[in-house]
Amino acid sequence: MINKKIITLQKLIPIVQKLKKQNKKIVTTNGVFDILHFGHVRYLEKAKKLGDVLIVGVNTDSSVKQNKGDKRPINDEKSRIAVLAGLESVDYAFLFGEKDPRSWISSIKPDVHVKAGDYKLGQIIEKNVVEKNNGKIIIVKAEKGYSTTGLINSILDAYRNQ
Known about the structure:
162 residues; alpha/beta; Rossmann fold; five-stranded parallel β-sheet; 8 helices; 5 strands; 17% strand; globular
């Protein structure tokens, strides 16, 4: 089942076109999803409820390094995408290597693109691309107390003096 959900963008585009002809509402989101935690799971569940099909763009290892620095990601891209594909809420997941998601969003043309609640609408670089294609941006409230950086810091603190 997991392997059927992991797909290339090139193979995903005709699938999305077929789903749209069936009047399916396409929802997209993207991120690193480095160390999957409760906040990620809840976020993806909320995103899925906004439509019929949830597609997750996952940053490649090289794009994570560009965005977050040389110490990230902790888990490699194959591991991260496989874990995401194992979630019931995720219908498709693909890797993208660009620094930002605007290029693939303009190819998929989602009905809804979801961002986590730590963003303000004016900060979302995808906004114009999504709206140009008659989609809308929805910001989903993040679960308080859950972040990958916070988790990494907790692990470091727990093992610092051993």
